[in-house]
Design a protein that fits this description.
single chain, 149 residues, alpha+beta, 2 helices, 7 strands, 42% strand
Length: 149
């Protein structure tokens, strides 16, 4: 169905990398806790699990609220996770997809690389860097607290 008067949606893409001072198994496992995403992916306000590979994320972006259904497309334990939004059949559906890769480093660190493609607009590269910094802080703070207990 033609979308009269609507401008074509632009897709932005970005990639970022950060080193987290924690073992790859722990880092990968933490990234799989989708309900924690609002703690580091700031546009996500709430995540509700539908089944093992589908989630509904409530997003706040540019002053608007959105609900997006996320589908996990690929899981390779301690190596890679890929996801995308799937259309809910609405004209205002935004498209997004991401791949997060994990590489174990010799010093008990993990290199996390995130690639994000999004039609939500905004500075995607700034958002990727911010999300990765937030994730690093979340992991390293929890690790520090667990060692101090």
């Amino acid at each position: 169905m033609p979308n009269k008067g609507a401008k074509p949606r632009t897709i932005d893409a970005a990639e970022g990398t950060i080193v987290v001072k924690a073992p790859v198994a722990m880092v990968y496992k933490r990234w799989l806790v989708f309900e924690d995403y609002p703690e580091f992916i700031t546009v996500i306000k709430r995540v509700r699990k539908l089944d093992a590979n589908h989630f509904v994320a409530s997003l706040a972006f540019n002053g608007k609220q959105y609900d997006a259904t996320l589908e996990i497309m690929l899981r390779v334990s301690e190596r890679r996770l890929a996801w995308r939004t799937i259309s809910n059949g609405h004209a205002h559906d935004h498209l997004a997809a991401g791949v997060v890769s994990f590489a174990s480093l010799s010093d008990q660190g993990t290199r996390v690389t995130m690639k994000l493609t999004s039609s939500f607009g905004g500075a995607v590269s700034n958002r990727v860097d911010k999300y990765l910094r937030n994730f690093k802080r979340l992991i390293e703070d929890r690790l520090r607290k667990s060692k101090n207990v």
